Amino acid sequence: QVQLVESGGGLVQAGGSLRLSCAASGRSVSSYRMGWFRQAPGKEREFVAAIISYGSRTDYSDSVKGRFTISRDNVKNTVYLQMNSLEPRDTAVYYCNAQRIGNDYWGQGTQVTVSS
């Protein structure tokens, strides 16, 4: 089993930055595809960013491309999401995801609120 705990959320003004962290425990997630998703009130959960296992290849949704950066530290078993130039539409609960064939784990989420 893998446990994921997100942190780093909070309230920030538009144009500001936040760095989310996702600490994994239970086993190494270095072989997992790690991702961030978000869910705004009344909306479905949506993909934000992902980083493949071991390597540096990343994927982003069009809405965050150029503003957000996902990275991972396999030694610390942690994934990060650096969020710059935040906008009110980025307000949501952000969830960390660890995925590998046959396994799919989620954290409890961290709230990000961007004020205008």
Query: Helix amount, in percent?
Result: under 10%
Largest sheet: 7 strands, mixed
What overall form do the CA principal axes indicate?
A: globular
- Terminal Cα separation, in Å? 40 Å
Number of strands: 11
Chain-averaged pLDDT? 96
Strand content: over 45%
Question: What attributes characterize this protein structure?
Answer:
116 residues; mainly beta; seven-stranded mixed β-sheet; four-stranded antiparallel β-sheet; 11 strands; 0% helix; globular
Entry summary:
The chain is mainly β and 116 residues long. Helix content is 0%, strand content 55%.
Would you write up a description of this structure?
By secondary structure, the chain is mainly beta. It has no helices and eleven strands. The chain has strands at about 5, 10-15, 20-25, 35-40, 45-50, 60, 70-75, 80-85, 90-100, 105, 110-115. The termini are far apart. The relative contact order is 0.32.
Outline the fold blueprint.
Elements: E1 3-7, E2 10-13, E3 18-25, E4 33-39, E5 46-51, E6 58-60, E7 68-73, E8 78-83, E9 92-100, E10 103-106, E11 110-115
Parallel strand pairs: 2-11
Antiparallel strand pairs: 1-3, 3-8, 4-5, 4-9, 5-6, 7-8, 9-10, 9-11
